[in-house]
Amino acid sequence: MGERIRSVVLLGFGTVGSCVARILTERSDLSEYFRLTHIFNRNFEGKRVDWASKSIVWTGKIDAVFASKPDVVIELVGEVNSAGTWIRRALLLGIDVITANKALLASKAPELLCLAAKHNAQLSFEAAVGGGIPIIRGIREGLAGDTIIGVVGILNGTCNYVLSRMAATGESMDLVLNEAKKLGFAESDPTADVDGHDAVAKLVLLAGVSFNHHLPLAHIVPRSIRGVADIDFKYAQELGHTIRQLSWVQRQEDGFCTFVGPALVPLTSAFASNDGANNLITTIGTHGGRNNFQGAGAGGYPTAVAVVSDLIALLGNSQHVPEEALWNPGHITPSPPRKHYLRFVVKDRPGIVAAITSALSAEGTNINAVFQLPGYPKDQLPFVVTVEACEESALKRAVEEIGTMDFHAKTPLVLPIWS
Amino acid sequence: MGERIRSVVLLGFGTVGSCVARILTERSDLSEYFRLTHIFNRNFEGKRVDWASKSIVWTGKIDAVFASKPDVVIELVGEVNSAGTWIRRALLLGIDVITANKALLASKAPELLCLAAKHNAQLSFEAAVGGGIPIIRGIREGLAGDTIIGVVGILNGTCNYVLSRMAATGESMDLVLNEAKKLGFAESDPTADVDGHDAVAKLVLLAGVSFNHHLPLAHIVPRSIRGVADIDFKYAQELGHTIRQLSWVQRQEDGFCTFVGPALVPLTSAFASNDGANNLITTIGTHGGRNNFQGAGAGGYPTAVAVVSDLIALLGNSQHVPEEALWNPGHITPSPPRKHYLRFVVKDRPGIVAAITSALSAEGTNINAVFQLPGYPKDQLPFVVTVEACEESALKRAVEEIGTMDFHAKTPLVLPIWS
Fold it and tell me: Is A316's CB within 8 Å of B141's CB?
């Protein structure tokens, strides 16, 4: 096409970085557009691979990378501080940046997007949400003609692996989580995944591209999946549901309501049939209704596909960044009333159900059903109360009051029931 | 942004066209980029609406439209001949074209894409496949970093409405199809939908964007869903399956294999849970694996979303059209062996099963199971034979041989079993 070949540098040669290099090496059709010139990694000597082009410079010095005046920086170092420094440095120089760094973007996207716009650079991050699912481009370009009012999804593959396997096998969370670590579906410290921080970061990015608003990270408090026990899948099944970690944002008149945590989802829903480490994201638009995007939410190659797609997109994109694409601060508002599932494990004695139901009634929450599966010991007796759609704040006060009662053998679990 | 406002003309003010005009009227954020100047429709006088801008020129004269020197032509007239003429005329003038005309594109895309490239114009057709699902952009841009090897999907909302409702209610096809016409889910003449020609056209477009090859329309022979009876859902259910119209293309070493028609799909599959007029498209990539895209496959507003998204994409796209994006001729090759479901309705007498099974054996197809649900009359006795994975040509010969036998009360039905 007579265009200049763009030089590309890769920061980080871990799982995703090496897959990106591999795809760029194999895709001969891209060689007339892009050349991978540098691979930066702290311990680069141990990382060298024989399949990569001999012309690539392997280095542990970031200054050497920038001295080469690259056209594109691909940032896959997977931590926040240095990555932030390098991304800013690149954007200030007008260098296009592609990153999968959800943690960095979730807190700094507005600043970085402004910086990019100011210096006529592109900042792309398809790989930061949903692994290989083209959801960022799907919302921002594919659904540009719609007005998105909500997004709900399974954004964390680790949680989905754990919960869908617990549902399928009846195993305990500890057992499944340990197995997930062995299989590479969970980190050795899975806190960011199971406690929901990873999903919150991704939700903030989805809200950003959907609404051009930046939700305040600190105001989205995720609920951990750690409280979910094998018994909850049995009760959920009785109710025609299973349990998944959901992340949800919806535009309201006065801001955005959000939820990140485990929830009951109908067995007939697409969420229930989303198994293993797959991600599933549903967009809700004023005109187009619901669109589902489903695929591999993680993994080296799927995530690398997202990175390389961002790279190829640079060929077609002019530097057009509409003002609306910059994110304004967003405000979190309370969620509308929703049905809930409350599971208690108690040391049985008379009057417990009465105590719980009157605490709920005192806050104006209406009980839908109380039920109990047979076959459990009296000193560890599980039972479930479902409540009709109620204000979250009222339910919270009632559950706090119930929590002070002396009959609990385990901490009560409260899950919203998704409809 | 200081850019010139682009003038847009709309050809065709039917269901989709009026929704496009409505979105462009409502989206004040787009008014700094685009202005709808002309609405062309043969009987334009009866079409005028009070919500459209007074500045829009309504006309039935195509020359008046072109005389205005538009920047973008949106073609939604819904027939092939004039649409082709007008699209060529626009592209020759370097005018960007957005169209939903799958029938035209399925036969003429290579010529029109070349014409667009030659005259530095864009030819966009997100709305031609999958209604509001951003599948064209999803494959071409979102998955640009992957190498697509196959696409399989539910591409026709009418067939899916009919088959999913037959599965749910046990009603006959005639009854459901009549109901679908009343509800607007089927045309008064549903031939193009139920006989698979609409799905073939969409498959050709998906293959085009996935592989940059143009499959020869005449060599993809669809199978009609008309032969599927209520009894088939009962037998399918016994086998853990239901029935959907599938469209499938897969890259092989020596070409592309395709299928368009009704097939048994597992009840646990995403296809089985795709109900009503929704579309579901699965892409299979070398690196990213499977991605599912699901949403409204038709309807005025969802399809209009795709059109408006194409329009907005013109802002970001430079005139870069890589050579690879032009479609080379593709060649159809036989499909690999697949399991099949064979349903017979016979006038019962001894020796029928023996005759059928020996005809199958003679062609080397192995029978997996023969089974029969109770409660049917002896002169209209349905039963099913499932055969193991076999060459389609051998099965075809066997079924032709069986078809000549004198015991049939109805034409046998042959469906592939999707795994």
Answer: yes
